What does this fold into?
Amino acid sequence: VQRSLVLVKPDGVRRGLSGEILRRIEAKGYTLVAVELRDATPEILAAHYAEHEGKPFYAPLVEFMLSGPVLAVVVEGHRCIEGFRSLAGATDPTVAAPGTIRGDLGRDWGLAVQQNLVHGSDSPESAEREIGIWFADLGA
Ligand code: GTP
Ligand code: MG
It folds into this structure.
């Protein structure tokens, strides 16, 4: 059975949307295998966002992810990687489709697409890697 690493980013936690986001994941039918509120670290984020290192938005993205606690979640279910990204909606919350997490709950607060409430793994390889980063004890 597939697993995905989902994060409620600091904007989502700060706005009190953790419960609503978990509700949507459970309502879709996926299982919550692990849920933990934690402070990211520069080391965790360097590993998590390695693919974006060197891009212009990398430093502000890391700073944003350190601005408050993150809810780290391991989601389980057949095709949950694809399924959660469908629930999350497009990266840019301004134009993410209504009905999605980003489309219903997100908007541009002046930082383009940076504050978009959630992260979801984009492939089985990413999910395994990211679960190892955020939940060293779980593996994938
Ligand atoms: P994640 O599920 O968070 O990985 O989102 P994604 O896969 O839709 O986006 P991507 O992996 O391309 O980018 C990771 C994150 O970096 C995004 O979710 C945004 O928070 C941020 N980001 C991406 N592109 C930009 C950009 O052009 N400007 C800014 N400020 N942030 C960006
Ligand atoms: Mg991504």
Remarks:
- The pocket of guanosine-5'-triphosphate (ligand 1) is lined by residues 57, 60-61, 91, 111-114, 116, 119-120, 122 (CB under 6 Å).
- Strands lie at 3-8, 31-38, 70-76, 118-120.
- The radius of gyration is 14 Å.
- The mean pLDDT is 96.
